[in-house]
């Protein structure tokens, strides 16, 4: 049976609620705009939480809009810039699944279609409401015969479509959960990258903080090897808020603490430390998932460089205590996770890599001993791997080999690369 992916638009495919944004455009010069904005948002939230019917919410919002075709054109430009980041970076998924990735929304085709079609979503696979216009192009209502304009509209639509396959629902609102409640879909994933509604997340089969998460748990092709929302990033000590903002915006799971609490030792993937914080050798040695440490100052005397080298942990710091380090250091950490860059690292070979496109990047951190690159390349040769590019740098006891390969390969090579003698750490980046 085919898999079908039923995806919501507002606050899921895009970061915002489109009708709310349309109101901000159409009411820009209205002296009562703030009060009207609040009323439109109130209608939106009540429906998303299941407290009023969708039709009541839709009628209330459309009536308040005072919008026309010119306003819609401006809205489309705005929405194209507001596509959720995890959907944007997985554009290739929609190209590969153009027959079965559908948009089903209580929003309106007039603005949804031009936003999603560049992502290879077919026009015939976009299900949404449609506006009614007067002769001057003003929005005066909507097609009330469309099942999506009514309460439980998504359920009614799927019953009409009689899809033969396994259906997965992805969305942020109560109308999305109703699909699961109806028994029409296999699983419902509450999408929380933009907003988390407890009335929805409490009932979901799985909470997906990103589209990467959905693809990961279903073992589907994706832009990154491991969802960043699953990478725990601890921020410890006196660290400016901008640092947390940068890392959270990039999709990492953030915890802000005064000390490096023992309960996080096993699972932490990234640590950003204020200049007054130290990590004990014992705790650092047991942090097996830790990939990178950022330090807002001179890390010497606070974190063992020797242990970091032994465990393949990349360290970024700023000995000169520049004001920009609260932004610069977290960005360096993110660049390492996202692209494999070690540029301006304190302990690793400084490598600034080209952006990865349509390939898998294999990061092999190893002890700098003779013959190891020959062993690595033997694995590729024995498995007939097509290598696009390869980079190698060493620094002291550390060797860092980066290889970009064709995405079509037997996964057994990953195990073989990990088992090479003197391997410290191995990681994959997908694009």
TrEMBL record:
Keyword Hydrolase applies: yes
UniProt-listed Pfam families: ACT_AHAS_ss, HAD
Domain of life: Bacteria
InterPro entries noted in UniProt: ACT-like_dom_sf, ACT_dom, AHAS_small-like_ACT, HAD-like_SerB, HAD-like_sf, HAD_sf
Any Gene Ontology CC annotation: cytoplasm
Cofactors that this protein relies on: Mg(2+)
UniProt pathway: Amino-acid biosynthesis; L-serine biosynthesis; L-serine from 3-phospho-D-glycerate: step 3/3
Keywords in alphabetical order: Amino-acid biosynthesis, Hydrolase, Magnesium, Metal-binding, Serine biosynthesis
Coiled-coil region(s): none
EC supergroup of this enzyme: hydrolase
Stretches assigned to the ACT domain: 361-431
One GO BP annotation of this record: L-serine biosynthetic process
A molecular function (GO) term: L-phosphoserine phosphatase activity
Entry's EC annotation: 3.1.3.3
Catalyzed reactions: O-phospho-D-serine + H2O = D-serine + phosphate; O-phospho-L-serine + H2O = L-serine + phosphate
Protein name: phosphoserine phosphatase
Organism: Sphingobacterium zhuxiongii
